[in-house]
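Re: weekly structure request thread

Next one in the queue (243 aa):
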Amino acid sequence: MFRFLKASALILLFCGSTLADDRFLDAGAPAADREWRAADYKTVVQILSEKKAPLPRLEETDGKKVLQRFCSIENLTFGRNRTLPLSSRMEDFFGLQQSANQVTKLYVAEAVGGAKVAGEMSLLLGFMLHVSALGIDLVGEFLPTIPKDSRYQARMDALAQMRSGLATIFTGAYSSIADDQIYTDDQRSSMLAAVAATADQFSSVLGADTKVEMISKFSKLQGRFTSPNDLKYIETITKMLGR
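Done, posted below.
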């Protein structure tokens, strides 16, 4: 009996210590072992903005856990579930996108200040590509539902502006992938994989000249990558943009 009680006490002590070490849960962040929605992202933004917890870092156990959940494409499942109302999915998308942008800006500010956050930035960039691809798909669903009334042109102009903003993320991704002074090969490879996974959606919003430019630039990257997977990603990107 004594041994059992002693073992139980050690287990409880270990679990209590583990939970206490999670600064983000302690600050009120959502659990990292479940799918997040826009409201969860908003909570994280508030916690980080108010400095209730530091920016998550990959070299820290609790930071890595929360950042990987933040950048998990599983969180986009709600937006891609066409059995749910489009209005609800678009509302969730806009909230998620805004929060992701805000956190990305926090990391950019850290990088400008000299912090080494290339790993974190590469994760965020890959995630933002997937978020943007979802936005492009949602806009595609929304377009046929727009009534052709007196506000039709204004709505179309707003959507065109939104799609243009999403497209800039794609061109920005190329710049990061081409930068082997800041990012490691593994980080560049992960971003390249995200571009390949979303190139089909981005092809629908990039201008004809921009597509030609991106095809040329990505093609020239072939000499800077040696992994068969990376070369396949580049082939996929140029193929999607050339359709």
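Residues 90 and 224 are 39 Å apart (CA to CA). The chain has one domain: 21-204.
Next request, please.
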